[in-house]
Amino acid sequence: MRAQKWLMTILATGLAGATPALSQTIYPINRAEILEGSRFDFKVEFPNAPTSADVAVTINGKPAAEVFGKPTAFTQNEEGQKHSALWLRGATLPAGNYVVEATQGANKATVKWEVFATAQPRRAKNVILFIGDGMSVAHRTAARIMSKGWEEGRFNGELAIDDMPNMALISTSGSDSVVTDSANSAHAYTTGHKSCVNALGVYCAKNALTLDHPKVETISELIKRRNTMTVGVVTNAEIEDATPAAMVAHTRRRSDYNDIVKMFYDVKPDVIMGGGSPNFLPRTTPGSKRTDDLDFIAQFKTAGYTIATTKTEMNAAAAAGTKKLLGLYNTSNVDGAFDLRLAKKGSIAKFPDQPDVAEQTKAAIDMLKSNEDGFFLMVESGRIDKYSHSLDWERAVFDTIMLDNAVKIAKDFAGERNDTLIIVVPDHTHAVSLVGTYDDERPGQLLRDKLGTYADAKAPNYGPLDADGYPTNVNTSRRLAVVFGTYPDTCDTGRPFMDGERVPAVKSADGKTNVANEADCTGPLATRKVGNLPFDANSGVHSGDDGILTAMGPGAEKFRGHKPNTYVFRVMAEALALGGK
Amino acid sequence: MQQPILLARLSRRGLLQGLATLALCEAVRADEPATISFDGLYKSFGVLGFQFSDRATSMRGQEVRMLGYMAPPLKPESHFFVLTREPLAICPFCQSDADWPVDIVVVFMKAVTPMVSAGQKVAVSGRLEIGSAIDAETGFVSQIRLVDASFHVA
After folding, report:
1. Second label for A420, Cα 20 to 30 Å away, from A25, A292, A383, B86?
2. How far apart are CA B73 and CA B119, in angstroms?
């Protein structure tokens, strides 16, 4: 969350990311795995602004231009900065191992790339990638207890996300940091490249403008360029938000929402669904967040899209055989399952007919499945992460159950066809853990007195399940105790937040730091906690813990052991045979 | 476009409250400008845009008074701040994935003024402007503004 500030600081001081100040920098970076035939921008930056005569760039010992079969362009003092740059936009390479050397005087920088081919014939007709944003092991365990029930050490059922034949631990680090954000981590899934915090579809070079950095091709662009598959992007976050944006976007700054809407229009996924409508509206429309007069609702309509703004309209479009849909159901994020079903807070009053992620998934598959060449669908349950930032674990777990229901719909579609690869994976994790149960019947006056651990961690007494597997009451006398490892100054209540999403901290009077939200500090068990995060944090942060991936269908057998997040792209590209000269 | 029934009800109630407050204010202080509430600004609030209420439209260019919360300001002294319906816990100026609520009112002061603590309820008086505008200095886009304004802690 603080990454924007970090980026601004860097831009202001003219330094560049984690790059050592005085060596040549080559993009794509060392150990890049590149799909054969996929497009990428090749860039080498030379410090101290040398002339072209002072530098040499070779690939496997030959001049770069010769290997690419296209001329490179050299710019001294790029953008007036103190470096020179060699560029080739839109490069491609045949499969093989490459050693790239950039020489400047006595200094030589070397990177190695693996360009990988994909075997024919194509093994999967369809790929469905489910991303549980921030989904960690405790979300999963709590969802299983809440949704399936627990007795005598066994669960009374399996989650659809657990009941899959293949599993792997996925590491989510970016090239710049151990702990990354949702932009860069989703980018790894959609491009196969490791980049830095805040980046989508680009490497993080020294360019001043966010849209100028070296680009890599996204899986949506590859599919649209190479074959006739349909593509769907479904989320309950804003559609311009990091995870869905990673399907189409190329920007160093994930908050370039207006540019990202244009990138959606340029790539034209067949089904686009989420929140975040204001960035589609021309600035003259009340409620717009655009700074220009572009009307993307009108443009998508002209391009043959049906527009849906409610669940009713979405289902009507799917029933009518619509093949191209832009579904925007909220001005901000679509409300999560906890508010849609139980609390009715958030923006339910303003937008009373929003679909949930499971309903969106069903409609999307119905619209995409008739295509003879198959489809690629990315579905995000985006608020598992957002509610974990706000330390509101019940809301995060309800949205984990919602993801599970969406995966069940995909598994029912895949059935016995054996032509659909289904992957379920978080993009990163949170420091969240299930440690026992809070029991109001326990003696004592403090929240910690009410915490049953070990032998006293009894089963919760949540209300009965509804038809979709959600408990109908979670504000009961014995509740799961789920704790977060990172927090600002805050007050714990040990109870679900029935009056709206938790706000753990607010700005202090001086406007510089964050302090506990006093609204949570007055209840009978309210417990004040001194934060363990830097003072500018107002919510929990991501963790660097590995995430758990489960998968089924053709190609899924490759998931085992521990893999980097870029491997997810590779398995999908191989299953769809997206490589080729 | 959706026309949420509940919102319409809330709006009417808000309007009635506003009118009641207005009547009270006129009885007590004849020089106070007419008050308009956040709910009273809009007659519909949909995914594809909002419509301003007839009352808000009719008050364009007039002095009005609004109650709301001062969003965390960019600087301790400023000529403008953002007025929100509910207190904002976060500072959308400060971080990348926080975004403004869609129904904000931007307040441009008569002069550079010391801001109050974030989250304070304030009463603002100023001339009501409606229509898309981009602030030349900050690039901030707004649909509805109070200009030549002043405020006090409510």
Report:
1. A383
2. 10
